[in-house]
Write a structure and sequence with these properties.
alpha/beta; TIM Barrel; 8 strands; 36% helix
Length: 233
């Protein structure tokens, strides 16, 4: 049910007939976003494999520093890895690389390519995720063909310096306003994930809560269990 504050957005139409063949709502339970900051001599491939072994249900390759050639090479390897684990794999921002390697989709922010343009390039069967911070942004992304929303930062985070903090009330308002799945992102850890209970999200996206841990596989297992409990509560 929509909250009263969102009634003014009813004029924004919901998408008709769009279904994503490559993603189920359950795939978004524990969504790992890569980051090279914690490699410490290890390969990103090795770290992603460990989190997949621990039960990660979705992987986003996020590269802000690599040149296009190395980004492409990395993306091919991680895609092959995710395919083996039957886990959806999307690219952050870079639609062209996603197309070239036939990734499962793309995640874009508010300052990146608009969701409707991404859908036009990728076609109807690819996954499109969109970052949103307001009900208005969420409804517009849904209208333009997004398959899921990443909302945050729900806690303070150093991983994305430009991410504004989003109240849990706003997070809940967004989940009530849209029909597509919503995941929370930003500063989420095993210590605070339970605080998101009752917001209507279907999962969480994390970076440091997995990749900054010494035992990535075990950290993933623990966080997945806690997230399941939070979603079901």
């Amino acid at each position: 049910m929509r909250s009263d504050r969102n009634i003014e957005n009813d004029q924004i139409k919901k998408p008709e007939g769009h279904t994503c063949k490559k993603m189920q709502k359950e795939d978004l339970l524990l969504y790992a976003v890569t980051d090279r900051h914690w490699l410490n001599g290890e390969t990103l491939y090795s770290q992603v494999e460990k989190t997949l072994e621990g039960g990660t249900t979705f992987v986003q390759l996020r590269e802000k520093e690599l040149d296009e050639a190395h980004f492409l090479e990395e993306a091919k390897k991680i895609k092959e890895l995710c395919d083996r684990y039957h886990v959806p794999f999307v690219i952050n921002d870079n639609v062209d690389i996603a197309l070239e390697i036939d990734a499962d989709g793309v995640h874009v922010g508010q300052s990146d390519m608009e969701a409707g343009d991404v859908r036009a390039k990728l076609g109807p069967d690819k996954i499109i995720g969109v970052s949103a911070q307001t009900v208005e942004q969420a409804l517009l992304a849904q209208e333009r063909g997004a398959d899921y929303l990443g909302v945050g930062a729900v806690f303070h985070t150093d991983s994305k310096a430009d991410a504004a903090d989003i109240s849990h009330e706003t997070l809940k308002a967004i989940t009530e306003a849209v029909d597509i799945p919503v995941i929370a992102i930003g500063g989420i850890s095993k210590e605070n994930v339970s605080e998101l209970s009752g917001t209507g999200i279907c999962g969480i996206a994390v970076i440091s809560a997995i990749f900054a841990e010494k035992d990535i596989k075990n950290a993933t297992k623990k966080l997945k269990k806690l997230t399941e409990e939070m979603v079901e509560a």
